[in-house]
Amino acid sequence: MSEVLVVGEGDLSKTRFFFITYCLVGWTCFFMPISPSLFSIGLSLLSLLIVLTPAYRSQALALFKTSWGAAVSCFFLFASLACLWGEADWHDKFVVLLKHSKLLYLPVLATIFLNRMTRFVGLQALLGGVSVTAVLSILSYVNWVPFLHIDPDYVFKNHIIMGLMGASGAYIAAYLAIKAKGMVCGLYSALCLLLGFQVLWINEGRMGYVLCLFLMGWLSYQYRKNRVVMAFIMSLLLIFTMLYGMSTVRQARMQKLSYEWHELSNHASPMGVQKATSVGFRVQFYSVAKEMLFTHPIVGYGTAGFGDYVIKHHLFADWHSGRLREPHSQYALVGAELGAIGLCLLSWVFVALFVTIKRGKVLGWMGMGVLIAFCLNQWTDSMLFYSPGYFLILIMAMCLGEAHENSV
User: Fold this and answer.
1) Domain containing residue 156
2) Can you say whether the dihedral through the CA atoms of 379, 382, 385, 391 is positive or negative?
3) What is the CA radius of gyration of the chain?
4) Per-residue H/E/C for 280-312
5) 287 in any annotated domain
6) What's the pLDDT band for 9 if we cut at 50, 70, 90?
7) Number of structural domains, the chain?
8) Which residue, of 37, 47, 145, 184, has the greatest Cβ tally within 10 A?
9) Tens-place pLDDT, residues 373-389
10) Which residues contact 276 (CB under 8 A, 6 or more apart)?
11) CA gap 369, 376 in Å, rounded
């Protein structure tokens, strides 16, 4: 068990070791929403620490043997095997496989979070990183800092990613506010309102609106039998609903969605130029992914197959946002490249995670809410494919650490 981990001779050695661990955990979690480079440095050092520490190493191996550990291993193994029948070049296969490999960090990081203090440090640092992003976004939006020349909707991450992290952060802050007392409760409540304001008033990510309101609803369901807590949650929901209703950014984005959908409905050609909109592109991406899945329903086109298919068939000439490697849906991507087997393995990963983190007494409900929100978001964007995947992995690792605290 992590609480009796022997790492050196004497209490001083153990104190220094855990201090280094807390610093690395704080660094990694804080910079996840801010800087990919600084986050990668922290993640690499943290992984190295686990590999070089015998007790951590044995615990990590034990976690790989759990149901969810086996699920992530099987998914990555199948994605690796899918390189054999995929027709993409090996460089592209390696790039896509590297993105899938982030799931393997789950058992590794869960080892660190078997310790209650590391979970506390990690969660606060992650909230801190999201909060810094939100504060900079708000300051830029109100123009209180003239020299801050940044897009309020794109500080460190784009609006889609910030929508997910901001909505999840607001939910986590509200959850922690309920658990806290006095001034700490007030600070978490203020943080919840800050993040909710950024998502519902400034952020242009439409899924962010949905996730924010969904997570507040999930929190209401969790505490439905506690009248005092329900009054607090209803107050937050009322404020968030008012922000949602009054936001000019939100109104413009929803009007644009309605217009794009209307334009899409008026053109029958699946690859028409008129469909060169965010909604139109997504419909075309899903159509191609569906065609690929139905052509090779069992094992798919192989790893990196979607991007290769797009290039070989000269699709989406109006797409000018860089190399298209995925269809803006994690499920469509896995179905197209890994077929029904890949979809089943990915489902196994999420179900196994849900069942396991449910056992956590403190973080269990919180983790389930974030996991469900993430799964919903993956219908419209390949969140696990890009950096938001690490956001989920860090939170899931904390919840898994709590669930296995007394069993590893």
Assistant:
1) 2-253+328-403
2) negative
3) 22
4) HHHHHHHHHHHHHHHHCCCCCCCCCHHHHHHHH
5) no
6) very low
7) 1
8) 47
9) 999 999 988 889 888 88
10) 318, 319
11) 11
